[in-house]
Amino acid sequence: MIAVLGEPPRRDGSELRALAARVDALEIRADRVGDLDPAWLRQHFSGALIYTLRSVEEGGEFRGDAGERAARLRAAAATYDQVDLEWARDLTPDLLDAVPAARRRVSRHEPRPLARAALTAIGDRMRDTPAALYMLSIAVESAEDAAPIVALCAAMPGARFTAFATGAAGLWTRLLAPHLGAPVVFGQLETGDQDAVPTLTQLHSDYGFPDLVPVRFLYGIVGSNPGRSRSPQLHNRAYRIIGLPALYLPFFTRDLERFWQILIPALEKMNLPLRGVTVVTPFKERVLALVDHVGAVAATCGAANVAWRDGATWRADTTDSAILELLAARGIAPHGQRVAVVGCGAAGRAIAAALAMAGAEVVLVNRGWDRGRLAEHLLALPFVPLESFSPVGFTLIIHATPVTDRLPFPLAGLARHATVLELVYADKVTPVIDAARAHDLTTVDGLRVLGAEVAMQFELMTGRAMPTRSTAPHATEEATA
Active-site residue among 284, 309, 315, 399? Predict the structure, then answer.
C-alpha cells in the first residue's frame, strides 16, 4: 500500500507518523508539494520513499524545462528509495545511469482512452527498460471506457505491472487492479479528490486492503456520483464475513445504456461477471428498459434502485419498500395510516406505492409541480405542492428529498403519536430528525433506512441473507431521492 502525499505535510509530521502501521511506502508528489527534505521525511516515516515529478503532459503540475527536470530527478535518485521516470521523456542515458533499475518506476499516463492493442504495445515497450515497477494509466470519463486497461492488467499478473484508469470514472479500476495481479495500490491521506483516488481509510474499511481475498465475480453501485457511497463498505464487509469471493465497486458513468452494452460483456470476457448493481441517480428510471423482468412496485412507480442477474436474465426492483419492515419493528402498521410522502423522486414514488399497496392513505408532496404531477399520474394518488403542505392530520411523514441543511417542511400540528421517517443520510442529526425529536415524535433516521435497504439489495443480488453485524452504517450515504 502506497500513501500519496499531494499536499504539503504538517510541520510536526504527525500525519506521516500515523502512516507507520498502515502503508509500506510514501509517494511524494514533488510537482505539487515541492522538493521536501528526505532526512526530515525519514524522521517521521520509516517506510520507503518514492519521488514523483509528474509533468503537465502526463496530468501533473511540473512545467519546468528538461534541464531542471533532469537535475531534480538526479538529486532525488541520491536520497529516495524509488524514483518515477516517465517513459516519454525521462529514459535518457544520464538518468538511467543515475537511477539503478531496482529503484526505477517507469510510468506512462495517457490523456485519453485507448484500445487494448494500443495499451498492450505501450506496456510491452515500457518493459523494455528494466525497472522495479511499471505503471500505465489512461484518463476516462465513464467506467465503461476503462475496460481495456483492466483487461491489460489481468493479462500481466506477476509482471511488476499495474494499470488503471484515472478520474472518478476510473476509481473502480484502481480497486480491482490488485486483485488481478497489480503489486501496489495507491491511497491518499484524508484530503484531495476522494472521488478519483481512494483514501487510506477507504482502502482499509471499504475494500479490506491490504488483505486480498479471491474475487470471482463483481457487484457494484452505478450512477453519476457513486464514489462517496457507504454501500461498498457494507457489501464488502459482508462478503468477507460469509466468505463470498466477490467485490463491490463504484461505477461512474454518464450513459447507463452504454455501460450496459460495453462494460458488462467486457467483464464477462475477463471471467469477472457483474452479477448485480445498486442503481442511483440519475438512472433509476432508465434501468427498467435494460432488464428482462421488473418487480411490481418498480413497475408502478416507474423506477428501480437495484438490478441483478437471475440465471441468464436480469431483474430490477426497488428496495425502498424496506421501510415497511422498519415501521413494523416499531409496531407501526401502514394500513389506515394517513401518510405524507415529501419528495416525489424515484425513492419517494417507490415508498408511496409500497405504502398505498399496504393500505395507507398516501398524499404526495413535492416542491416542483412537474415531478409532483408525474407521481400523481403514475401512482393515482393525490398531490399537494410543498408550499401548501400542512402536517396536521398526518400520522406518518416520509422525508424523501436530499435536503439536509434546513427543515424543508413544518412539523407543528403533528399528533404526539406521529412518526417521522427520513431517507436522507448524513454524518450528523439532520434538521428534520432534530425537529421531530424536539416535538417528541417517533423517528427513523436515514442510516436505519440505509441498513434495511442494503440488506434487501444484498439478498436479491447474492441469494443470501446479509449478516446483521455488517449493516451498521455510520457515515454519509448518498441521498436516495
Answer: 284
Q: Please state whether beta strands 25-29 and 2-5 pair in parallel, antiparallel, or not at all (unpaired).
A: parallel
CB count in 10 Å sphere of residue 138:
26
d(CA 414, CA 144): 48
Which residue type does 209 have?
F
One-letter amino acid for residue 354 of the chain: A
Q: How far apart are CA 367 and CA 196, in angstroms?
A: 33
**Nearest of 371, 316, 350, 370 to residue 423 by alpha carbon:** 350
Backbone angles phi, psi at 282, to 5 degrees: -110, 30
pLDDT at position 193 is 58
Q: Are 422 and 428 in contact (CB under 8 A)?
A: no
The least confident of 122-126, 243-247, 426-430, 443-447 is 426-430
If you average pLDDT over residues 105-116, what whole number do you get?
A: 96
Q: State if pTM tops 0.85.
A: yes
Return the ∠ at Cα 313 (arms to 115 and 466), rounded to 5°.
95
In 189-277, which ranges are continuous DSSP H helix? 200-205, 231-242, 256-269
Find residue 306's DSSP bridge partners. 278, 317
Q: How many beta carbons lie within 10 A of that of residue 6, not counting itself? A: 19
Catalytic site includes residue 269: no
Give CA–CA dist 348/343, Å, rounded.
5
* HEC readout, 214-230: CCCEEEEEEECCCCCCC
What is the chain's mean pLDDT, rounded?
A: 92
- Rounded to the nearest 5 percent, the helix, strand and coil shares of the chain are 40, 20, 40
Identify the burial level of 114 via C-beta atoms within 10 angstroms of its C-beta, where 0-12 means exposed, 13-18 middle and 19 or more buried: middle
221-248: average pLDDT: 93
CA distances from 244 to 231, 236, 268, 314 (A): 16, 9, 18, 21
Lookup result for grid cell 541520491: 78
Distance CA 78, CA 83 (A): 10
Rounded distance between C-alpha atoms, residue 350 and residue 101, angstroms: 59
Provide the pairing of β-strand 306-310 with 338-342: unpaired
Phi, psi (deg, nearest 5) at residue 97: -70, -35
Q: What are phi and psi of 350, to 5 degrees?
A: -65, -45
